[in-house]
Amino acid sequence: MEKFQRILLVFHFFIVIFLLGTFLNGYIKPAAFPWLNLLSLAFPVLMLLNMLLIIFWALVKKKTALIFILCSFFLIHPTRRWVNFSGKSQETGNLKIVTLNGHSGIMGEEAMRSYLNSVHPDVVFFQESRFYKHENLELKDLKYRYKCFIVELHSKYEILEAGPILDNPLQGSSFYADIKINGQKIRLVNVYLEPFRFNKKMLNSNVSISTVGRFMNTFENIFLVHQGQVNMIKKFLDESPYPVILAGDFNAVPNSYEYYHLGKDLKDVFMERGNGISSSFHDYKFPIRIDYVFCSREINPVSYKVDRSVKISDHFPVIAEFKID
């Protein structure tokens, strides 16, 4: 039994090291060490194992459990990016946005249109907006529109100025659009980072060395592409003359390099107003969070919701409200 506990202690120690290692994504670029970003993908599983092992140690060795509990205090903030309980503000918002990867309308354009009209958004951020049957998905009361390759925005408010941010349409897309609410100009930034383009058959196939090798090569290549995209978008955000609302599909999970750097100096609206689990992509067996809404510190978020009541895409719609004074 003692030998088993020693092995388990070493195993638990490495789990905590890997969890704490995700902090390094805020400092180390994928170009320097791309595999560090993989730890962010494993974070939920590692955190679950950490909690189960703490329960085990609490039953057999309370002092050991206490040590791991103390170490886990440093993991509260990273965990809240996945699971949070902050709740809705008592204030009433005057700007309601929806961000949605539309999956090119494959799961039904009419269902998507009907849903979006039913939630009455002021602004819709679309990614993967290649709607095959219709060049434009007409939405009620949202008469202003800007499109940049496969990313677009529909707005109730006049778009004062808009333009692309990323310069390679073959590797994701991003743009900005300026609107005015209550005399306040707001810069909306729609982000769609380069996707991984995994084949579901490949994911469900038997694990082999060649399969693992293909996965690792894909991860490394995409992490490097993301680094370049994040640098361009972050520079643009830092130079914005107006408060920013950043939303879209990052194709990256919380605690990743992409999350840390795009979200730097901004508020994660899920952490401010979200309640429950943040996962938004449901096409694979393990649901993950890759859709985000961030805002400048001077903007007041009122509510945040991942709407799992509908399946109009392989992503759930994310709805957020703000009060713009």
Automatic annotation (TrEMBL):
CDD domains: EEP-2. This is Endonuclease/exonuclease/phosphatase domain-containing protein. Keywords: Membrane, Transmembrane, Transmembrane helix. One of its GO terms (biological process) is GPI anchor biosynthetic process. It holds the Pfam family Exo_endo_phos. The chain crosses the membrane at residues 7-28, 34-58. Residues 112-315 form the Endonuclease/exonuclease/phosphatase domain. GO terms for cellular component: membrane. InterPro entries: Endo/exonu/phosph_ase_sf, Endo/exonuclease/phosphatase, GPI-anchor_lipid_remodeler. One of its GO terms (molecular function) is catalytic activity.
